[in-house]
């Protein structure tokens, strides 16, 4: 008994350790980490080197559901409310309507290539219809891609919020196939529609209540520092399970709870984030190892061609069409839509949902799992491996305008200020004599191994370590002041323009300086006001607007998200030039194409000769 227990612990701990150490290889060869974890599970499985037999689908579904709930809570916790607001409408449209469109399109090749009935085909389409929150968050954040704000926010909010729709569709179609919805036709449709509103309504309300409960418990109950993150994650699991008991969407509830808790003034936020980061890594590793162990590669060959056809339609037709149609009303540029369409990574959620038909005892339930597993492998390999080069190709990577910052954060329980410490480097603005804002006077300075008060030390010098109190939203402004002046000048010039402008400069001054024709009604507007009106959404670093023969670019934002600096490119750059000329046209481009087509259809009328 004890010996078998030790062997089990050895196997589990060894696989987790192997996955962690394999991450070092992943960074060297550029492979997606999630693909590495899945491969470790495959190698340890029945057909791999480990010859471990694991076929308990119920245990796999339980492990995957708990792990996914942990990941979604952390995803919501790390999503800023500003990012959520700026991307809420396009992301939620993509997370709801986009899932339905993807399901409908993918059902076609499943029906004709794999020979499934239409309901079975729709079930497989719903299983692979959602992007994977874990895959998107890890590849964007761990990969270190500094993407345009609106594109990054849309991808993160969509991936965190589209799982409930895919889960609802999958469970409803499984129930329909298993006969759980009673009579077919209108009665079944009404039952599914009623279940839809129940799932999302109860899930949203439970998530909001649960998020408030987590904030109250962490802030008011007086837990020890080490117990605070445990209290938060345990309550998140209570919210997840209780919502499911009330027939709501537990996954939606736990994501909303994380969103509320992460954007509230919660005690020890850095301790919470560090704990959740480690726990989310563990959940991700365990989930992918479990799903890898459940797969049997020797069963794959008969399904490879069919799965490849589904993957091709999914990546190159269904996801792009859904992304274009859903984002069409929101003014995304063509390169932005192209990138969002490509980052439609399928991952653990799809494989987890493919277990549901087996749990429900459907005929050929294993077929859903195998096809989905192969589709996920293709998606993680092709899309996951190419995210960085595609982002650069489509002009989505924003060059960092500040160099490295040596900073550490210290938590102050119950306070709304952070104590941050900066090491002064020689080429920073502070070292070159720029004064700190009044709200950020140093409280302590370490110099040559000795500590000094702010007034006794005088001007800061290279090598000093300065401790300052600041509100969290103002810390990025301090980062710019203490940063090394080391960003690549060429990338900065190409992306951010030739000259820097003050955001308060009036448009009529630009007209005089550069010989531009500007309508009278905007001449008294500031450049920042004009840009915001032209963009039609919250500005982000890297956003650009053409102004005659020049281009105005958002170089940086202030701590309150107002435009702090504008760049001017004398000649419009090619950053936003459409790289896929025949795809993802905007409404304006579609209207112009229609007008040109109509002009060609209607030849100009002949003008009768004048009579003299």
UniProtKB/TrEMBL annotation:
Annotated TM spans: 6-26, 58-77, 89-110, 122-144, 165-190, 196-218, 280-297, 303-327, 339-362, 368-391
Biological process annotations from GO: proton transmembrane transport
Cellular compartments annotated: Cell membrane
Primary localization: membrane
Ranges for domain Cation/H+ exchanger transmembrane: 19-391
Keywords, in A-Z order: Antiport, Ion transport, Membrane, Transmembrane, Transmembrane helix, Transport
GO cellular component terms listed in the entry, alphabetical order: plasma membrane
GO molecular function, one term: antiporter activity
Membrane topology: Multi-pass membrane protein
Entries under PANTHER family matching the protein: K(+)_H(+) ANTIPORTER NHAP2, NA(+)/H(+) ANTIPORTER 1
Record's protein name: Cell volume regulation protein A homolog
Species: Magnetospirillum molischianum DSM 120
Lineage, highest ranks first: Bacteria, Pseudomonadati, Pseudomonadota, Alphaproteobacteria, Rhodospirillales
């Amino acid at each position: 008994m004890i010996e078998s227990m030790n062997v089990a612990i050895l196997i589990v701990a060894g696989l987790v350790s192997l996955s962690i150490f394999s991450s070092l290889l992943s960074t060297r060869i550029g492979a997606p980490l999630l693909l590495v974890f899945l491969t470790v599970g495959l190698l340890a499985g029945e057909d791999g080197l480990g010859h471990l037999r694991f076929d308990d689908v119920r245990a796999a579904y339980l492990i995957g559901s708990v792990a996914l709930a942990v990941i979604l809570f952390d995803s919501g916790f790390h999503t800023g409310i500003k990012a959520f607001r700026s991307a809420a409408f396009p992301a939620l449209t993509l997370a709801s309507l986009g899932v339905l469109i993807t399901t409908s399109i993918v059902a076609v090749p499943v029906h004709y290539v794999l020979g499934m009935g239409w309901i079975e085909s729709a079930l497989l389409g719903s299983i692979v219809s959602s992007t994977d929150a874990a895959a998107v968050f890890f590849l964007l954040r761990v990969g270190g891609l500094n993407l345009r704000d609106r594109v990054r926010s849309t991808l993160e909010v969509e991936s965190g919020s589209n799982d409930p729709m895919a889960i609802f569709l999958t469970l409803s179609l499984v129930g329909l196939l298993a006969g759980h919805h009673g009579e077919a036709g209108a009665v079944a449709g009404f039952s599914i529609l009623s279940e839809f509103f129940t799932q999302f309504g109860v899930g949203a309300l439970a998530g909001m209540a649960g998020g408030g409960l987590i904030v109250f418990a962490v802030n008011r109950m007086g837990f020890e520092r080490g117990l605070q993150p445990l209290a938060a994650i345990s309550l998140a699991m209570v919210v997840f399970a209780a919502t499911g008991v009330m027939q709501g969407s537990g996954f939606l509830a736990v994501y909303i709870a994380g969103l509320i808790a992460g954007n509230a003034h919660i005690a020890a936020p850095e301790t919470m984030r560090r704990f959740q980061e480690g726990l989310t890594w563990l959940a991700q590793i365990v989930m992918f190892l479990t799903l890898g162990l459940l797969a049997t590669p020797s069963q794959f060959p008969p399904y490879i061609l069919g799965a490849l056809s589904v993957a091709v339609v999914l990546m190159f037709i269904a996801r792009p069409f859904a992304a274009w149609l859903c984002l069409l009303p929101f003014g995304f540029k063509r390169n932005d839509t192209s990138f969002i369409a490509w980052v439609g990574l399928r991952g653990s959620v799809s494989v987890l949902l493919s277990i549901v038909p087996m749990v429900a005892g459907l005929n050929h339930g294993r077929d859903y799992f195998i096809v989905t597993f192969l589709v996920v492998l293709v998606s993680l390999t092709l899309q996951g491996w190419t995210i960085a080069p595609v982002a650069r190709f489509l002009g989505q990577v924003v060059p960092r305008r500040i160099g490295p910052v040596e900073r550490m954060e210290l938590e102050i329980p119950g306070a709304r200020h952070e104590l941050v410490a900066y090491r002064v480097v020689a080429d920073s603005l502070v070292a070159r004599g720029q004064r700190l804002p009044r709200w950020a006077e140093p409280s302590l300075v370490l110099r040559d191994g000795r500590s000094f008060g702010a007034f006794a030390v005088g001007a800061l010098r290279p090598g000093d370590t300065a401790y300052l109190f600041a509100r969290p939203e103002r810390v990025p402004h301090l980062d710019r002041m203490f940063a090394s002046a080391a960003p690549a000048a060429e990338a900065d010039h190409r992306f951010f323009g030739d000259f820097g402008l003050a955001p308060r400069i009036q448009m009529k001054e630009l007209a005089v300086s550069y010989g531009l024709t500007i309508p009278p009604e905007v001449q008294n507007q500031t450049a920042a006001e004009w840009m915001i009106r032209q963009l039609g959404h919250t500005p982000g670093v890297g956003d650009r607007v053409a102004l005659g023969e020049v281009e105005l670019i958002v170089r940086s934002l202030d701590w309150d998200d107002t435009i702090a600096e504008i760049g001017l490119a004398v000649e419009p750059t090619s950053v936003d030039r459409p790289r896929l000329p025949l795809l993802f046209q905007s409404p304006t481009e579609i209207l112009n194409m229609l007008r040109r087509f109509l002009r060609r259809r209607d030849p100009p009328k002949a003008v009768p000769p004048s009579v003299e």
